[in-house]
TrEMBL record:
This is Diaminobutyrate--2-oxoglutarate transaminase. Its cofactor is pyridoxal 5'-phosphate. PROSITE patterns: AA_TRANSFER_CLASS_3. One of its GO terms (biological process) is ectoine biosynthetic process. Belongs to the class-III pyridoxal-phosphate-dependent aminotransferase family.
Amino acid sequence: MTDVEVFENYESEVRSYCRSFPAVFTTSKGSIMKDENGKEYIDFFCGAGALNYGHNNDYIKEKMVAYLMSDGIMHSMDMMTVPKKEFLQFFEEKVLQPRGLNFKVMFPGPTGTNGVEAALKLARKVKKRNQIWALMGCFHGMTLGALSLTSDAGSRGGAGVCLNDVTHIPAPYMFPELDTIKYMETLLTDDHSGVEKPAAIIIETVQAEGGVHVFSNEYLQGVRALCDKYDILMIVDDIQVGCARTGTFFSFERAGIVPDMFVMSKSIGGYGMPFALTMFKPELDIWSPGEHNGTFRGNQLSMVAAKAGLEYMLDHKVEAEVKRKEGIIRKYMDENIARPGVEIRGIGCIWGVQVADGKLALAICNKCFEKGLIMERAGRDNNVLKLMPALVATDDELMRGLDIIRDSMNELM
């Protein structure tokens, strides 16, 4: 039995990424992954945003190994531990306070969807309303509450039950002639709108899975003002585009806004470790002890890795590096990728290249994989090439990956 047959015979049909990248991978470092045949691949997938600091980052690995060798606490539910204390202090003093942010930290289960579920539950508890508003084109997770927010039909179809208590609002790019802020205000003020006032509006500042749609600062400010005016909580889902992916550690910083809640996961785990945070303003912290919990909330090794990741981010000025690399990518896109029938969108180190249809996008991604580049698709009909290089990728790795995309597009278009 070949290695591939092992997966085909024994693993569930639900598997997905291995179908797009049919190789058995063995080692990885920085932006490079190797398969069992020794072939190297440049990684523009980045663990779906969980590996901002690259594969096997030496600084973070050293901290994790040292903690493992010390016989430190590995599992503690939500008991007080040194890793938790050190993470909380560092996050507060080095990340939140310098940005003028005052938030309580909640450790839900270790994935992004766990963080979203906690935010939804708390928002409804605080406002005593059951409705949540989300945008069409969004992705917020695959557990039932988060899935009720998520808009793509394929994901929703797997629920098996009705997904209730969410109203989906057109995203601003869908109808350029429609003022969607005014549209939401009309839903709130028109006594014949038929739509209930929500407890919260949840939003990604960049719709990543939706096709890399970057919401303008003005739009984000408009949502913030609407929430303030009508006593609605603003929740930012920073799971995929946080941790400096857009050029600031929190993606909402560029708009000069402060949400009432935000959720982080993926690269907040530092090393690809499972970790999630649900953050909220102190006055919203009305939880009763144990009212929301989970056996693996606050994974200790993840806290060690998370603190080390933050240290690495600050010491290596990753935010400034991302802004510099944004210029490199934007210039390359304009000079080598732009062409009739192609739409390019992006910010920082997340970019989308929209082509005619999903079939062409799949062919391009497959060709890129043959040439040694791992990249996924996103958007409607999966017609968007989604570029997410590691934030620490070298300029040479960045250019080599972009060259593969250019060459693959030239061959197929």
